[in-house]
Amino acid sequence: MNFTKSILYTFLLSLLSFTGFSQGFLKAGGKKIVNEKGENVLLRGIGLGGWMLQEGYMLKINKESQQYRIRERIEELMGPKQTQQFYDAWLANHTRKIDVDSMKSWGFNSIRLPMHYNLYTLPVDQEPVAGQNTWLEKGFALTDSLLAWCKANKMYLILDLHAAPGGQGNDVNIADRDPSKPYLWDSEANQQKTIALWKKLAERYKNEAYIGAYDILNEPNYGFENPNEDKNGTKEKTNAPLRKLMVEITKAIREVDQKHIIIIEGNGWGNNYNGIFPLWDKNMVLSYHKYWNYNDQNSIAHILKARDEQNAPVWLGETGENSNVWFTDAIRLLEKNNIGWSWWPLKKIGSNNPMEIKSNPNYDALVRYMNNGGNKPKDSNVYSGLMELAIYSKLENTIIHRDVIDAMIRQPFSNETRPFKASVIKDKSIVYAVDYDLGKNGFAYFDTDTADYHVSTGKRSAGNRGRIYRNDGVDIAKDSIRYEKYYVNHIENGEWLQYTVNVAQRGTYTLKLNTAADNADGKITILIDGKEVAKAVAVPDTGNAKKFMPFEIKNIALKAGRQKIKVLAATGGYNFSYIQFVK
């Protein structure tokens, strides 16, 4: 509760300069997004990836990982009735009012909804009458509920057509594309259905001020001029079909809705605007997407140039899938340049997002089968694993990664460190190595490998190589012997971890450090409130990097009350599990 209150307090302070609550319809005011009072609105949001549209990687499925193929393969294992039950449960559980309430309390002021068209209308090849549109209540009802929760929290909802009829690119997972059927780009029927869907949405929500904008086509990635050598359109020079479709969608929206912002995205996953300009509407925002590159001014120079030339606001519609260091640096860069943002995603199976959906043994077996083949799992086990996964997608059953939230909301604007867990030190108290302080690299901890910049460097790096428990640069592994225990590994020279503790009673303590090493090279230095109290103490060789044994550092004087203990790797090469304080 204290953590939530502190995050909310930080957010409220930021509202003094950037208004985040609804004051009527949002609109483009020159290079800014403003409310009806003309006040600057900086959108801080998250996309609900994985809810209406499951991308396989979010489910740990990496073979035939478009949603339609995942569903077909599940049906082959347990039949259509039980498959429908799973998808109904998934849609009901994944995103609820408690999720929106929590996002608001953490400090976010907007949500991007990635929509799958097939929840709103039939595919063109399933229409009873060719050229007509059958409207499905399911998608609209889900959107209505989400909008009501946003309104209750005074948050903006941005509608994003993530999966368009036929699919808008060659990255087939993004839009759940079936390559055996006509593309959006080579099918007039698919294009007309896309246009009609946006007109239908605009008719329904034209008077809703908490609908922040219409993001009309997510991440087009198609090579119109040279599809063989430029299949994702990153080198496209004209983008004529993309511009034409976006102009037609805008025209259809404006026939019924004059008020809402229309957000457009370039080709090449949102970033290639060649041939798109000049803009054709006065109330437009330029979106771009940013992944795995440096967080420097040069990384956003192209979109700032477009903002200046078109005199239109810019919004970072999608980013994430990296470390806390990357998140903090990116948000600081964006907000310095008055660019609002929407992170990706809120939750999935994986730790680098605010919520982690837990897996289960039956689901793990299904994933192994879907990825690698082998023995077919029993239909009852498949059903049990999937329904349990749907239950685990509820917020109260997820792992909430408050280090990720802190990195996004507080750390971009503060060097202060805070305890990860409350640690009251009494005789024989234990502080686990992985529970080092919340804060920036260089302030709460120091690690030499902190984020993935492979788009800029051409080389992937891991941050936390274990991709578990926390999302900083610190490498963490799961203890194979002790259930739900973790330790820090891959410790390199000069790296350190800081722990803010509250000592109950002043005195002289022995520190028992639980470590493992298959060499005798490691050395640890201890600092308390910046003062060195033990220097380069040798870490014992336990004969195996997973065989942990405690060793003692004696005669450490601790005052009563709060203090910061730093464990520094004078020489690395060991693994670190916990410190025990013995008075």
TrEMBL record:
Mind telling me which SMART domains this protein's record contains? CBD_IV
- Judging by the UniProt lineage, the source's domain of life is Bacteria
The record's Pfam families line, in alphabetical order, gives: CBM_6, Cellulase
Q: Report the residue ranges that make up the CBM6 domain in this protein.
A: 458-582
Q: Which UniProt keywords apply?
A: Carbohydrate metabolism, Cellulose degradation, Glycosidase, Hydrolase, Polysaccharide degradation, Signal
What InterPro entries does UniProt report for this protein, alphabetically?
CBM6 (IPR005084), Cellulose-bd_IV (IPR006584), Galactose-bd-like_sf (IPR008979), GH (IPR017853), Glyco_hydro_5 (IPR001547), Glycosyl_hydrolase_5 (IPR050386)
The Swiss-Prot or TrEMBL record describes its family as follows:
Belongs to the glycosyl hydrolase 5 (cellulase A) family.
Which protein is depicted?
Answer: CBM6 domain-containing protein
**Lineage of the species this protein comes from:** Bacteria, Pseudomonadati, Bacteroidota, Sphingobacteriia, Sphingobacteriales
